[in-house]
């Protein structure tokens, strides 16, 4: 028993430690672990940012399309004899639509797409007594949604469901927006709808 105690005390009093080689190996392993954890954390944060931006972009775009579709659906010139669509191109749409007042004012609503941005402007008639309606100049264009990647989101059909570029002949407006997040521009999403005018001559 004294011999065992002596050997134990000898080991406890010993000054042996890790060799330099062992320390370098341990440091290398720790470095690998820290690097792997940092890469994993960075990927997780980036992915979380992409998902958050995607959700925001999709929510904004859905709201924009819903509003645009509702406005186009109720397009009206004020007399039923004049076409309510004034401009109909692949990147611009301008039309007339009444407000909710009684008697109503007529609104001139314009949308345009450029540089990845959907913008909207509006002017409200100063009179309520019918044609000829008196409009001020369009107000300043305001941003509706950005990150749009397709060049021509608007297409049009006439009464026979044939494609048309003549504003007076438009009876259906097809709207299709493709968007991509800034964090992941290669990942794109498309949202489309088709709107038929309720009032057309």
Give the SSE map:
Elements (H helix, E strand, L loop, with lengths): L1 H12 L6 H54 L11 E4 L3 E7 L7 E9 L2 E8 L17 E4 L8 E4 L14 E9 L7 E9 L5
Antiparallel strand pairs: 1-2, 2-3, 3-4, 4-5, 6-7, 7-8
Report the sheet-strand fraction. Answer: 25-35%
The DSSP helix count reads 2
List segments where confidence is low: pLDDT < 50 over at least 5 consecutive residues.
Answer: none
Query: What is the radius of gyration computed over CA atoms, rounded to a whole number of angstroms?
Result: 33 Å
In which range does the helix fraction lie?
A: 25-40%
Tell me about the largest β-sheet: 5 strands, antiparallel
Structural commentary:
The protein has one domain. The longest helix is centred in the first third of the chain and has 54 residues, at 20-73. It has 201 residues and is of the alpha+beta class. It has helices spanning 2-13, 20-73, and strands at residues 85-88, 92-98, 106-114, 117-124, 142-145, 154-157, 172-180, 188-196. Pfam families: N_methyl. This is Prepilin-type N-terminal cleavage/methylation domain.
Quick structural overview:
This protein is of the alpha+beta class. It has 2 helices and 8 strands; from the N terminus they run ααββββββββ.
Task: From the structure above, extract its key features.
single chain, 201 residues, alpha+beta, five-stranded antiparallel sheet, three-stranded antiparallel sheet, elongated, Pilin-like, transmembrane, Prepilin-type N-terminal cleavage/methylation domain, N_methyl_site
């Amino acid at each position: 028993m004294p011999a065992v105690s002596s050997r134990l005390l000898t080991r406890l009093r010993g000054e042996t430690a890790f060799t330099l080689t062992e320390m370098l190996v341990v440091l290398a392993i720790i470095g690998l672990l820290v690097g792997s954890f940092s890469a994993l954390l960075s990927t997780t944060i980036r992915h979380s940012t992409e998902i958050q931006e995607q959700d925001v972009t999709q929510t904004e775009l859905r709201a924009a399309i819903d509003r645009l579709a509702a406005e186009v659906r109720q397009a009206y010139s004020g007399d039923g004899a004049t076409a309510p669509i004034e401009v109909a191109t692949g990147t611009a749409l301008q039309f007339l639509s009444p407000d909710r007042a009684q008697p109503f004012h007529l609104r001139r609503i314009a949308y345009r797409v450029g540089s990845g941005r959907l913008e909207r402007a509006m002017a409200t008639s100063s009179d309520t007594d019918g044609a000829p309606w008196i409009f001020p100049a369009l107000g300043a264009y305001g941003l509706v949604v950005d990150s749009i990647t397709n060049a021509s989101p608007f297409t049009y059909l006439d009464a026979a469901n044939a494609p048309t570029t003549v504003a007076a002949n438009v009876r259906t407006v097809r709207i299709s927006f493709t968007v991509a997040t800034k964090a992941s521009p290669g990942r794109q999403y498309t949202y489309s709808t088709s709107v038929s005018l309720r009032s057309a001559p």
